[in-house]
Amino acid sequence: WLLCFAMIRRVSTTSSLSATALGSFMKWSFKSSHFHGESLDSSVSPLLIPGVHVFHCPDVVGIVAKLSDCIAAKGGNILGYDVFVPENKNVFYSRSEFIFDPVKWPRSQMGEDFETIARKFNAMSSVVRVPSLDPKYKIALLLSKQDHCLVEMLHKWQDGKLPVDITCVISNHERAPNTHIMRFLQRHGISYHYLPTTDQNKIEEEILELVKDTDFIVLARYMQVLSGNFLKGYGKDVINIHHGLLPSFKGRSPAKQAFDAGVKLIGATTHFVTEELDSGPIIEQMVERVSHRDNLRSFVQKSEDLEKKCLMKAIKSYCELRVLPYGTHKTVVF
């Protein structure tokens, strides 16, 4: 079936891989822990473990055949394969899930094999992830006064459903040491840093020092705007949860604004942070209906629940190598 699938790919030309282009795109690299369904259950064989590979290159003939042959030649078995080729655009995206024997195909050799294919097809990105062998991404969480997204992430992390290592929590609001959040962080050895900000001083240099060894940052309702200098200095992805569907009610108390306006549909948006406020590529959006029967309390509760779910799903997709940049302002989410 792989050969038949490969034969339908269109033809274009290739050139040598640009290290600069690949390096730039690799900032979008993501980690994997779980996959959809039960397809990558390593219990199929005690020797086989799961891996995932994403590929982004100019659209040419033979890409699928070459990638599948690379896996099959080392005794691996593809369990799932997704391809996206935009209409009237000479670009190819793919994501493959596979199982393999690490004795027959050592992790270091796997990286070299996929890199060889990346050079052959002038790939903008070729990222492979083996969850049981590769270290988890290290992340930092930034937040202000609201705790709901932080609490959700900490509980999911504790239950093993958030495939990351949380290195620290940074906030511009102080929290008492005897609160459940502070006790949780202390119990699990996660540092908490209170960095008060002002309009004149956003404490960005201090934050950069704390997050310099992380792989990406999550703004879990951090009510401060990160400057372009901060984003350039960090140089890796920053993911934000927005309190509504973009564009949305702006300014203070957005939920109350929407409530007072009598809206019938509320939402949440998770997106990458860019220098242009709330305009970064969107990863995930969720909506829920509200009605005249909702009071402000139930309205806010529904909004916060959406934010938690939307943020968690986006991070899970990101960690499973499902999110790829598409053009300047969009994403491909497999």
From TrEMBL:
| InterPro entries noted in UniProt | ACT-like_dom_sf, ACT_dom, Formyl-FH4-Hydrolase_C, Formyl_transf_N, Formyl_transf_N_sf, GART_AS, PurU, PurU_ACT
Q: Is this entry keyworded Nucleus? A: no
* Pfam families reported in the protein's UniProt record: Formyl_trans_N
The UniProt record lists the ACT domain at 52-135
Cite the entry's keywords alphabetically: Hydrolase, One-carbon metabolism
Spans through the membrane: none
Q: What is this protein called?
A: ACT domain-containing protein
